[in-house]
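hi! just following up on the protien thing from before. the input was this:
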Amino acid sequence: MPKSTRTVSLKELNPKDIIILVVGPTGSGKSSFVSRASGFDDTIVGHGLVSKTSKILIVKYTDEESGQEIVLVDTPGLGNTFKDDSEVLRMLTRWSRKLKKRGLVVAGILYFHRISDNRIPGNPVRALCVFGETSGGFGAALSKTILTLTLWNEVDEALGDKRLAELKSMDFWNVMSKYMDNVETARDLVREVLQRQGSMSSQNTDQERALVKNLETLAERQLSIFRKIDEGSRNSSELELEYRQLRLQMDEAWHQLCNHGQTNRGSD
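and the predicted 3d structure came back as:
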């Protein structure tokens, strides 16, 4: 186990900590990764599609190789069995706001995806956008995100390679890495974040950047709605209706971005 592995509160973090967010749907291996990378108690790991993580869990440890303080933030997944999507996103928004107030910056985001799924469930941008303020903007949050592919043991090699090629065709994810549910690949992911600090940049085309900009605008509206709901706005029913409409717009923008990448891939 790495030195000084422990759970901490947000108040115990400091600007020198390497903060890595672990995001993704329920059952995608997030808690397993936190356990393998940090050596933290394996009882946090959920099994199947029943979410074990219903709150934000912060695990801090000293990396033996670099000597740096690593902070892994295990977040509730979308499709959570304890909380609906909007409640999870509002929780993440409030947490991100507190992080910003303390002057803390996210070093990397690991977005977990089951390779056994034939497509990425839901809209990952709705989850990623809430961390824009603590990453240097929505575009910076995307550039800091590593699509982390899991559950390779549930597919044969040919199908796994086929789905990996499909994901690459989207031209949206700058970096993809495999997590094989073991200590070695978990530590490799942490090292990748450390090595990429300050060098993460988007490789999107002009048209893709326009699509991402549209998503950024929608993401800012989502944050505004969540803030008003949390502030106890009297127009909560109207805000909830606006959020449902906005969610449809974000999903449509996400599908456009996905389809754009696949169309470009097909014309190569």
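DSSP finds eight helices and seven strands in the chain.
The longest strand covers residues 106-114.
cheers
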